[in-house]
């Protein structure tokens, strides 16, 4: 029993240390930029040693990747919560899209996931992470609509990715918009019109 309790405490400490490093890196990267922040600064901000840093992460890019994965997982949880109570598929997609655009206005998600990740991790790796997060869920929702006969473009999966990309483009432009609420409304209406064009029931 003592051995189990000791091992559990050790694991809890390791999880706390890892979380502290991710939290510190997130704040520093958003404030100063990825290239301007080193391992020493991250370790110091997290109040751990460099040895503790390298125990959890091979290097700074590995930490950044873990941070992007965490931010994407948090975004997915928020989008899922926003759409969970909707019974109509169209309402679920709209609620999820609205929540996603709100998330994209958050400084950490916008700076690290949207702006920095493609350059640091590469487009291919970003795509892999996206497939398990909000974009992947959005594509899956549109494919479900296709299976139900409510989304019939020539290439459903390609169209689903393109629609998801439309929301990402809106997300990139939202922070600089003079009227973010209006832009968000217009973006969602644009997506709805595209969906309507491929919905035999609504055409």
Reading off the top of the CATH hierarchy, the class of the largest domain is best stated as Mainly Alpha
How many domains make up the coordinates? 2
Tally the helices: what do you get? 10
Structural class: mainly alpha
End-to-end Cα distance, whole Å, is 66 Å
User: Strand percentage, roughly?
Assistant: under 5%
List how many beta strands DSSP finds: 0
CATH-derived topology of the largest domain: Tetracycline Repressor, domain 2
Q: Report the sheet with the most strands, covering strand number, pairing sense and barrel closure.
A: none
Rg from Cα:
20 Å
Could you explain the architecture of this structure?
This protein is mostly helical and 203 residues long. It is 79% helix and 0% strand. It is built from 10 helices and no strands. It has helices spanning 2-32, 39-46, 50-56, 60-83, 89-104, 107-121, 123-131, 134-147, 156-173, 180-197. The chain starts with a helix and ends in a 6-residue tail after the last helix.
Secondary structure: elements and pairs:
Layout: H1 2-32, H2 39-46, H3 50-56, H4 60-83, H5 89-104, H6 107-121, H7 123-131, H8 134-147, H9 156-173, H10 180-197
Helix pairs in contact: 1-2, 1-4, 1-6, 4-5, 4-6, 5-8, 5-9, 6-7, 8-9, 9-10
Short description:
This protein has helices spanning 2-32, 39-46, 50-56, 60-83, 89-104, 107-121, 123-131, 134-147, 156-173, 180-197. It is mostly helical.
